[in-house]
Amino acid sequence: MFIYDTNGKLLLNIPIKHLSKSSPKQHQKYKDVQIDPEYKWQKQHWKSLKTAYQTSPFFEYYEDELAPLYQKEFKYLMDFNYSCFEVICGCLQLNIDFYKTSEYIPEPKNAFDKRELINAKIQLQISEYNQVFMEKHGFLPNLSILDLMFNEGPNSINYLKEVRG
């Protein structure tokens, strides 16, 4: 995810275990991607979030709900991502009905398919909102949902509805 820190856009990524180099063409299923426990990424991510957003209007409002994500150990990236999704939905008071499939479905029928929203290569056009370091670097779009939540708080839902049009 990208966040807004004092120097501008900062990437926080999670180190993963890669497949053996002896089979470079082999693709790994998302459900099997393991987080590499050798790196202390959770401590680093939480410290970066606190440093970047502790002066934002709503960091303290969400801090207690988000902190456990950076304290619990996760073996699989998918488990961490689902936990993040559930916590964010809870923070925003969203009741989203979702389910996991046992296999990849290229074109799901009878489902609200929004997989394109997680494509980091797509730059969405969004309206500006106040950001902590806006006076220093201007508005930075396409950051983590946490940036919106820490800056807009409970109004984040109204903002997202407006952007969705």
Write the SSE topology.
Elements: E1 2-5, E2 8-11, H1 41-53, H2 59-66, H3 77-91, H4 134-137, H5 145-152, H6 156-164
Antiparallel strand pairs: 1-2
Written overview of the protein:
With 165 residues, the protein is mostly helical. The chain has one domain. The protein is 35% helix and 5% strand. The chain contains six helices and two strands, in the order ββαααααα. It has a two-stranded antiparallel sheet. The chain is globular, with a radius of gyration of 17 Å. The model has no long low-confidence stretch (mean pLDDT 89).
Biggest sheet details: 2 strands, antiparallel
Give the low-confidence spans: none
User: Total helix count?
Assistant: 6
Helix content: 25-40%
Radius of gyration: 17 Å
Oligomer: single chain
How many strands appear in the DSSP assignment? 2
Percent in strands: under 5%
Shape: globular
Give the topology string: H per helix, E per strand: EEHHHHHH
How many domain modules?
1
Distance between the termini: 24 Å
What class would the helix/strand composition place it in?
mainly alpha
User: Numbering strands along the chain, what is their spatial order in the largest sheet?
Assistant: 1-2
What average pLDDT do the residues reach? 89
